[in-house]
Amino acid sequence: MEPKKDSTEDKILEAATNVFVTKGMEGARMQEIADEAGINKALLHYYFRSKERLFEAIFAEIIKFAFPKITRIVTSDEPIVSKIEQVIDAYIDLLIKHPFIPAFVIKEINRDPSGLFKLVVKFGLNPQAIFDQIQLAMDRGEIVQMQPRHLVANIISMCIFPFAARPIISFVLFKDDQQALDAFYAERAEVIKQFVINAIVIKNKEKV
Amino acid sequence: MEPKKDSTEDKILEAATNVFVTKGMEGARMQEIADEAGINKALLHYYFRSKERLFEAIFAEIIKFAFPKITRIVTSDEPIVSKIEQVIDAYIDLLIKHPFIPAFVIKEINRDPSGLFKLVVKFGLNPQAIFDQIQLAMDRGEIVQMQPRHLVANIISMCIFPFAARPIISFVLFKDDQQALDAFYAERAEVIKQFVINAIVIKNKEKV
DNA sequence: GCATGATTTAACCACTTAGTTAAACTAAAA
DNA sequence: TTTTAGTTTAACTAAGTGGTTAAATCATGC
Questions:
Q1: Could you tell me the maximum CA-CA distance found in chain A, to the nearest angstrom?
Q2: How confident is the model at residue A208, as a pLDDT?
Q3: B82-106 pLDDT, tens digit each
Q4: Which nucleotides of chain D are near protein (any atom < 7 Å from a CB)?
Q5: Which residues of B, range 114-143, sit inside 8 Å of A by Cβ?
Q6: Predicted ipTM of the assembly
Q7: Which residue segment(s) compose the domain that B27 sits in?
Q8: How far is the CA of B126 from the C1' of D13 (A)?
Q9: Residue A144 covered by a domain
Q10: What's the pLDDT tens digit per position in A156-202?
Q11: A94-153 tens-digit pLDDT
């Protein structure tokens, strides 16, 4: 995904990322990865002993990528609404650059959730801090009362789903007009921010 | 998915639906489908000549299912907000009963979009009528101005995505507490409805 | 020059897959 | 009784699959 050096190992990782992300673990073929890396199958196994090891290396990389560094945004001092806006911007930015990640992650976590578990445990992902912050803002009357989990689910859903369902969006909504589709995705960040703000921010006349 | 008669053909369709929906086209094995249907592989091919034909039969059924009969709701006389509420209720209802459909559809339309195309063309799915209605309500000042496509995308996203990402929601948000997870999904319809109404309905003091 | 690691080639293994086939059996219809 | 469709069994094919191996080649630095 990132521009790599072009050592053989990096060429393999890049090729494997492409193939795995588009075809998935089961659909991917070692031969195809070798071809795309411009090497042969023997050398592929020379570097990464098995398909599973290669896949795990790439899956971990992608998951780290898919849970972006919202930690920094969340732990800042800014007001909650500003944080939400930044998270949405960060997500849409990421997804415009890597639109195939959502479908890949959904596919693989549903095929074998254990990979996700390991990584979540490893990185100590804990959403409680975020929920607490949201709850605090609600108690202060800045935003409407709702379960923080649902608010987070709503925001993440609106960010990610249109990329996961890209073929439907493209064909049903835009008749495969690529430019219109790109424009749509480019608008998403502003649209979602406005939508969320309308939905939760309490205009400061009377606070509930 | 539906309770079938138990003719052999229906047993096969039921078994194939289960296997395809959980494993996908590539992960599914004809032998497993035969086993689950309580028959043998030869008979499976006797009824459905190939894996592809069997898959297509089931995929069409699922897609019909996944685009629920919102036509009836949309073409009714009720105000737009009421229609939106009904669509959300219909979607969440459907997904609680068939929570694996979103992941399956996302997987398969990304693997091979041509199946979707055929079906969309066949059923003459046209979202323009919906967009026109939404635009009308906006022009009448009932709801805020935004691109109807984005509004539809937002609503559908919030409905479907939490089911597609079920393993993440379950583990990260609920530590695999099944009861809490079920409760979460049961709350979704009300939460989404409230969220959308807050976001788009103009309180009738001054209209924009 | 020589040693070392990277790389290729090409054959190979063990296994799985979708799909076929032939033979026999069952049950109900004609 | 005979015919027919449905069904089973079991063996088979053809084509992949991931993975291994041995030998030869290439490039580099010591």
A1: 70
A2: 43
A3: 999 999 999 999 999 999 999 999 9
A4: 6-11, 16-22
A5: 116-117, 120, 125, 127
A6: 0.90
A7: 8-58
A8: 47
A9: yes
A10: 999 999 999 999 999 999 999 999 999 999 999 999 999 999 999 98
A11: 999 999 999 999 999 999 998 888 888 877 777 898 899 999 999 999 999 999 999 999
The verdict on A48 and A102 lying in the same domain is no
Residue B2 has pLDDT above 60, yes or no: no
Mapped onto helix, strand or coil, the DSSP state of residue A116 is helix
- Same structural domain for residues B125 and B177? yes
Around Cβ A89, how many Cβ atoms within 10 Å? 16
Closest Cβ–Cβ partner in B106, B184, B199 for A198: B199
B75 and B150 belong to one structural domain: yes
Residue A187 is assigned to a structural domain of this protein: yes
Domain assignment present for A205: no
Chain A residues close to B198, C-beta within 8 Å: 144, 198-200
Burial track A50-75 (b if 16+ CB lie within 10 A, e otherwise) = ebeebbbebbeebbebbbeeeeebbe
φ and ψ of A203, to 5 deg: -60, 130
Residue B102 placed within a domain: yes
Instruction: Clarify whether residues B50 and B90 are in a common domain.
Output: no
CA dihedral B129, B134, B138, B143 (to 10 degrees): 170
